[in-house]
Amino acid sequence: MRSKTTFGVDCGGRFDRRVSQRRSSAERRTDSITQKVSSPSSSYGERGSPDISACEAIGVVRELAVVHAAHLAEGTARRAARTRSTRCALTSRAMSKVTFEAELIEGHKGVTAVEVPFDPEVRWRKKPFRLAGRRHGWPVRGTCAGHTIEGYIGERWGRRFVMIDAPLRRVADLSVGDRVSVTLTPSEDPATLARAIEQSKRTTQPGKARPDALPPPRIDVDGPLARVRKICAGWPGVLETTTFGHPTFQAGKKKTFAVLDDHERPGMLCLVVKLPAPEQARVLRDPRFAPSKFGARHGWTSMVVDRQTDWKEVPSLLRASYRLVAGKRLVAELEADGAV
């Protein structure tokens, strides 16, 4: 048998036998062509002796057969590799999803939760994230009694838990003592992490922070910052600066009208702008918006900036904020340019 490396593929088992069978089939077809060309009835040359062109044709046919077999082998190898990759991905997803049944219990401070029967660090091979204060946990998404949940797996006193909030209990009609089916999957989505940080504030924090807990993933500020710069480019008197480490845009000296902030909602990037009262009331009906922690009664409002952000509505928010803080001269110049 010829060496397997002839085809440029490292094969084994049934796959090797299939390649060998295909190669043998190609060689049999080539030998058949050779016999026909070399036979006394061949039309390529005189009786019993094919001419040069016939010999060349035989060589070409042999080469084509080998190349064809090699292509078949390579294609089969690629398909096998894709199949293995797909199976590994499916297995990984299946291993990350955990389903269990547990009793809904009430703990300290009236927090309702279900006890988690596995160690997420062992099961998922992931360290916990730092949450609020000295707390830590594993952000998760999943379902509880068929309804979506988003939060984190916390641990205290050797026990692990997932909080089940009151709105979910009402929707799922759950009471303390009920047994529920829970499915959890680890998540590093910024929205899930932000939810976990807020949720963790309702629990008692440990005396010491876990030293190996991971810091929250870095928030991408560069992309949104470039977009805000482009929108405000050319506006009269616009200055870009930094306040308390946050990119800030001002209309004239010390008149802030926009801030990219990651403290409004921990773990998430927000665009903070000042809006007229009617506009603020309108946008706050959208869960992406929230009153700013600083100056909400004066119109300051935060908007979550993530992959789902509709950047077509951002220019109008920035213009509204600019008009409120900029001096009359700057607003007149902007109106003269037709930008507002």
Describe the protein.
With 340 residues, the chain is α+β, with helices and mostly antiparallel strands. The chain has three domains: 4-95, no CATH class; 98-200, Elongation Factor Tu (Ef-tu), domain 3; 222-336, Alpha-Beta Complex (Aspartate Aminotransferase, domain 1). 39% of the residues lie in helices and 24% in strands. The protein is built from nine helices and 13 strands. The strands form two sheets. A six-stranded antiparallel β-barrel has the order 1-2-6-5-4-7. Helix 1 (13-38) runs antiparallel to helix 2. The model is unreliable at 1-12 and 41-52 (pLDDT under 50).
- Percent in strands: 15-25%
What's the number of domains? 3
What structural class results from the helix and strand content? Answer: alpha+beta
Distance from N terminus to C terminus (CA atoms, Å) equals: 80 Å
Q: Give a quick account of the main beta sheet: strands, pairing sense, barrel closure.
A: 6 strands, antiparallel, barrel
CATH topology name of the largest domain, in short, is Aspartate Aminotransferase, domain 1
Shape: flat
Give the beta-strand count.
13
Using the 3D structure, state the CATH architecture of the largest domain: Alpha-Beta Complex
